[in-house]
From TrEMBL:
SUPFAM superfamilies: GHMP Kinase, C-terminal domain, Ribosomal protein S5 domain 2-like. The active site is at residues 21, 146. Its EC number is 2.7.1.148. It comes from Pseudoteredinibacter isoporae. Transmembrane segments: none annotated. InterPro entries: GHMP_kinase_C_dom, GHMP_kinase_C_sf, GHMP_kinase_N_dom, IspE, Ribosomal_Su5_D2-typ_SF, Ribsml_uS5_D2-typ_fold_subgr. ATP binds at residues 104-114. It catalyses: 4-CDP-2-C-methyl-D-erythritol + ATP = 4-CDP-2-C-methyl-D-erythritol 2-phosphate + ADP + H(+). Pathway: Isoprenoid biosynthesis; isopentenyl diphosphate biosynthesis via DXP pathway; isopentenyl diphosphate from 1-deoxy-D-xylulose 5-phosphate: step 3/6. This is 4-diphosphocytidyl-2-C-methyl-D-erythritol kinase. It comes from the Bacteria.
Amino acid sequence: MKQDQRLDTRDWDLQLPAPAKLNLFLHILGRRPDGYHELQTLFQLLDHGDQLNFRQRLDGTIHLAPEFPDIPLESNLVYRAARMLQDASGCQHGADIYLHKHLPAGGGIGGGSSDAATTLVGLNHLWQTGLSKAELCELGLQLGADVPVFINGQSAWAEGVGEQLQAIELEEKWYLVLAPNCHVSTAEIFSNKSLTRDSSAITVAAFLEQGGQNDCQQLVSSLYPEVAETLNWLSQFAPARMTGTGACVFASFADRTAAEAIFKQKPEHLDGFIARGIQESPILALL
Ligand SMILES: C[C@](O)(CO)[C@H](O)COP(=O)(O)OP(=O)(O)OC[C@H]1O[C@@H](n2ccc(N)nc2=O)[C@H](O)[C@@H]1O
Ligand SMILES: Nc1ncnc2c1ncn2[C@@H]1O[C@H](COP(=O)(O)OP(=O)(O)OP(=O)(O)O)[C@@H](O)[C@H]1O
């Protein structure tokens, strides 16, 4: 289906955020026979992200706007999530969807996954398809390992491939996130021979006491000098770490003012944002 650039953007039925996430640490414990990696991570949801508008259609078609030159419609996780929900529920309705994209793709902050989660939750509400949160998570997992945490809607400790979630109360902090000018493909990093995959499993209590690291950081820094440079720059001011498989890096601060003081000094070629860590996603209200 051709993307519809001339979508009527008035009178939406629903407007929802798709929050970003950070992996406060990421340990790779091993590799499953299907190639996916067993990991432990701490997902911190942020009050910054993409925005989606939805309007019900009676003709069963899914229209997504605007056009994203780098992402064919059938590959867009928003379109795929909408089609998946139609197929799983037998729903005859369609939707106009407008995606206000703010998050960098391939940034390790879960943009595409969060867009997919918001689409599943939003359309389940709009179409009254009545799938439970667990059923939506099961569908979401087929789109990406990071989708369930956004459907679950809580900052969480995660195990398995990232889908076994345990909500965790985190200290409220502000995060400065910097986006080096490169896209890192998650599949490329997870398939790299040099990735270390032998971290020992730790408990939540041990992590809270000793902290953790990002097992992908060294490899990504060696493949993408932009990531290494950004980590070096931010490390001058605060402990800096990469999120997910990169490319974004972050540091935490007790308040917004402290984060802003560093943000003001950032090199011009770096994009980025400041966000507050949130316990719950705003989309939880719909579930
Ligand atoms: C690195 C993290 O961002 C941490 O939150 C996620 O584990 C990645 O989640 P995601 O982007 O939703 O990943 P998916 O779209 O499911 O998978 C992208 C690719 O990464 C690899 N992959 C992903 C997750 C995982 N636990 N093990 C993997 O090996 C797979 O080869 C897959 O082909
Ligand atoms: N709605 C979407 N937004 C962004 N990327 C999308 C979307 N739909 C499909 N994609 C594809 O997914 C790829 C990864 O995008 P995404 O922004 O989720 O990466 P990421 O931030 O590294 O995610 P994660 O932290 O979950 O690994 C992109 O390169 C793009 O081709």
